[in-house]
Design a protein that fits this description.
The protein is an all-alpha fold. Helix content is 76%, strand content 0%. It starts with a helix and ends in a 7-residue tail after the last helix.
């Protein structure tokens, strides 16, 4: 019962936070120096025998509801958003939700696969580094982790393209399908798209794996130096059982925080990676919309990301009690 009250309280608090976050986002979007409406009005005013730029601006702002103040416009947008109506994208010229459905799939699968590889690689390496503290293995893993954490995404992508696309010629520079994609059968299309996803997924794994390895190593070292671990070793338990049954189980609690923070990344897309590889995912679409001043799509994307962040934090708090029975909500 206490847990249910806590969850309800957190949900209500999240709704309040989301309201003010959406208001801030809407205010920032309305105050941007350029917008898609201005570009369209400028293009139309340059046509022969056309109306002036000011007349086109007034007409388009009235059509899109931009002629109202920020507060009034926000509550109009909020009323429509509560009903699941986010309007039409100015840049993509389709409903916002339709564009979202078209692009979320590839971003979700790419992020999910990369996160699975990230956890399968980083957690064992972090445990090994903690077990062999100050050894050559620990130093090698730490160097790899720091290098992955330090490399900027755009530099890493450029390096991977140089090596694997230009020098070796194993992959295409951009895109998610090859030139002969239309002539392939179903299995061939699957293999072709999977082949084009190798570098983007490798990029996501490399830029994320370092921080998780260091996180696991730090928490594992703290647990391995605890008194109950020394007691378990004194009882004659094997090192494998001490590490993986006793120590690693208590390392799961801080890892839950990491898992909750990973939720937004599964659905919000990888903006830099998708943009530089020209992958038509939600991250690349949001970049195109923001550059074009597409307020409806940008508002939906950033609000959606805020919802994911709040949901991830709530799930992390709830999962504490799952991985550690000692944690209870009072």
């Amino acid at each position: 019962m206490n847990t249910l009250k806590y969850v309800i309280k957190r949900i209500l608090l999240s709704i309040v936070i989301l309201f003010f976050v959406a208001l801030i986002i809407y205010t920032i979007m309305r105050c941007l120096p350029t917008s898609y409406i201005e570009n369209v009005a400028r293009q139309k005013s340059m046509q022969p025998n056309s109306k002036s730029f000011e007349e086109w601006m007034a007409q388009l702002e009235a059509a899109y509801g931009m002629d109202k103040g920020i507060i009034a416009g926000f509550f109009i947008w909020l009323g429509q958003a509560v009903r699941g109506q986010f309007g039409d994208s100015w840049f993509f010229t389709v409903p916002v939700l339709q564009r979202f459905k078209e692009t979320i799939g590839i971003s979700f699968w790419m992020s999910s696969i990369s996160m699975i590889f990230e956890w399968l690689i980083a957690i064992p390496l972090g445990i090994i580094a903690a077990r062999k503290q100050y050894s050559h293995t620990d130093y090698a893993i730490s160097v790899i982790a720091i290098a992955c954490m330090s490399l900027p995404t755009f530099f890493l992508i450029a390096l991977l393209k140089l090596v694997f696309c230009i020098n070796l010629g194993w992959f295409d520079l951009v895109g998610v399908a090859g030139r002969n994609y239309a002539q392939l059968d179903a299995w061939g299309k699957f293999l072709d798209r999977a082949h084009h996803m190798v570098l983007p997924i490798l990029t996501l794994v490399l830029i994320s794996i370092g921080s998780l390895m260091r996180y696991v190593r730090t928490n594992m070292l703290e647990v391995l130096n605890a008194d109950y671990i020394r007691t378990a070793r004194a009882k004659g338990l094997s090192e494998r059982k001490v590490v993986y049954k006793h120590a690693f189980r208590n390392t799961l609690i801080p890892l839950v925080t990491f898992l909750g923070g990973s939720l937004p990344g599964l659905f919000s897309g990888a903006l830099f990676t998708e943009t530089m590889y020209s992958i038509p995912g939600i991250g690349y679409s949001s970049y195109q919309a923001m550059v074009a001043g597409d307020i409806p799509f940008s508002m939906f994307y950033m609000t959606f990301s805020a919802v994911l962040a709040l949901t991830g934090n709530l799930l992390a708090d709830i999962l504490y009690a799952v991985v550690d029975p000692r944690v209870r909500v009072a």
